[in-house]
Backbone:
């Protein structure tokens, strides 16, 4: 009786773990844009979207100002366009009001012949 219960618990645990892995795998995205260095770090521009690469301060010259294919886990960040500083007033924020933070990023130069985008 106890062994049957233990086997059922193990099976449930394995099913839950495998479902979680599939969900996490779906988080990965791919975009193509132009690599730029800004005050805050390395970013990628794609149309009107901005992608900040977590942990990357500057692009290597091989990638800078070129089309780059970026893969990773994208988190939408929406910031304030105004910042209020106590006793000094309200100022324009020195960041992008809407951008994606890309974690676990990998990148390569974009090849337009690559159909796996």
Residues:
């Amino acid at each position: 009786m106890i062994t049957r219960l233990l086997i059922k618990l193990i099976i449930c645990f394995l099913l839950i773990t495998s479902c979680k892995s599939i969900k996490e795998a779906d988080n990965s995205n791919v975009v193509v844009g132009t690599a730029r260095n800004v005050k805050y770090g390395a970013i990628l521009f794609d149309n009107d979207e901005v992608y900040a690469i977590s942990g990357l301060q500057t692009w290597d010259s091989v990638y800078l100002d070129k089309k780059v294919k970026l893969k990773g886990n994208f988190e939408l960040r929406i910031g304030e366009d105004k910042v209020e500083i106590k006793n000094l007033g309200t100022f324009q924020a020195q960041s992008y009001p809407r951008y994606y933070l890309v974690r676990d990023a990998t990148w390569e130069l974009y090849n337009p012949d690559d159909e796996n985008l």
